[in-house]
Amino acid sequence: MSVLFTSISAFTDESPRRNNPVKPGDAEAVIEPLGLRIDPAESSDFHTLLAAIHDCAEGVAALPDYQPAPDQTKYPRENVRRPSKEEQVFGQAWAHKFLIRGNQRGGVLAGKSVSLKDVIAVAGVPQLLGSDIIPSWTPSTDATVVTRLLEAGADIHGTSTCENYCHSTSSYTSAQGTVENPHATGYSAGGSTSGGAALVSAGLVDITIGGDQGGSIRVPASLCGCVGLKPTYGRVPFTGISSGDAVNDHAGPLARSTFEIAACLDVISGYDGIDDRSLGSAKPGSTSFALNLSQSSRRLEGVKIGLLKEGFEHNAVSSSVRHAVLTAAKKFEDLGATIEEVSLPDHLHGPAIWTIQQRIAGAQTLLGQNTGRRGLYMSEMERARLPWTNEGFQRAFPSTKNVIINGLYLMSRFPDLYGKTVNIGRQLSDKYQTLFEKYDVLVMPTTPVVAPKNGKRGLPLESLKPSMGLTINTAVFNVTGHPAISIPIGFAPAKEDEGVMLPVGMQVVGGLWQEEKILRAAHAWESHFDWKKMHCSTELN
């Protein structure tokens, strides 16, 4: 009997395949951890049904997978390797080195060098995920963003280190090693797009593509002194990128200028026919963010800017960062913009809402239980990392262990909570949208402090402490989906040493699908002011 194209009778056939491994009692064993029992009178029937679904599953498992086939003839992967000690920079910024030459006919990004966060699939390149829980796995396809970068003429030089399973905004959690801040050894480069931010900041690549599920583009951009954009949710397809929570998944660029960010966004955005997150995005190639910036006056007459009170006055924001960002924001007035303080108390609920979403969905993803989206599933990776073993769990960084523990606890004790956070997140998004009816953009610090000292792996609280609080102004916009860009606006002293000056990031947030407004404001600011000459007084720390 075929198990591929069959009627419901397949599930009532009393003669499953003879080699079927399902044994009497297996149905009971499956539900026993849930505290559930099968009526003895029904046991035989459920055994038959379980054996039938096993036959069905084996038939589907034997079918070939369906993944986009990359053109490796046009875009061959040259010299794929783990970098030698001599090739490494800033500790362990590179995950793998290689070269894929972009379209030889040229394009929008011709001559640009790119690195990719090590969660973005590149066919034939092992992916480490910043972890040693499992051996590296090797994708057979390219992420959509990879294909689009190459078609636009960019050269891809490698994958850059990401933090352990992307579960940290620090830069010392990767199993491959610590990434150092380019401005001061011993200080965090931010995470989880740690290696890429360091490479961009130091001028070793022009652009990095990162993933952002709570601040993982904007936090390292802020700490390293580069520009990082989290686009509107769905603007850039997430196809071929490892997911945490599909509700919070965003991909976007880091670069040294807003114009480079705009040019890259033109290339990588637009629905790809695969990822349902990007169904609402414009047709690929139809945006003109870079062109509009090049033609703008670099003045901001008529633009209304709101300084978000709660983003500045949170007790985690250091006085030096608050002063630096306020000083920078007030310079918008010199460009013709109108500035007002604005308040949205619910902004402060953002971190808690995000935390619940990430713990529950993150645990489901790690355990292979996150379903329900139309897109490209990374089936090769799932086979490599599942099922979990205690040995693998013990190697996991404490943040990953914590996601699993927290997620399972929340699902067992608060069964409605994930859905409620999605509902409240939509309400919060609506409240921001109301503000954007009056203001073109909102401004606040990206991170509450400059780069902290790199931590070290120890007991869980010690391991997690250096990351705590860094996303108070970033994670909320992963919940709401609003576009947000971080630009460097000066330096402030390190908490541990006032003689060490480190970059400060200013976050500019816009209405849904209003990237043009935040790009225009950021571009105008950086066109008139040199952030590298702006130093906050150490007396404020």
From TrEMBL:
Alphabetized Gene3D superfamilies for the sequence? Amidase signature (AS) domain
Annotated segments matching region Disordered: 65-84
Source taxon at top rank: Eukaryota
Signal peptide span? none
Per the database record, which ranges form the Amidase domain?
Answer: 103-519
- Provide a Gene Ontology MF annotation, just one: catalytic activity
> Which Pfam families is this protein grouped with?
Amidase
Spans of biased composition, class Basic and acidic residues?
A: 74-84
What phylogenetic lineage does the species belong to? Answer: Eukaryota, Fungi, Dikarya, Ascomycota, Pezizomycotina
UniProt name for this protein: Amidase domain-containing protein
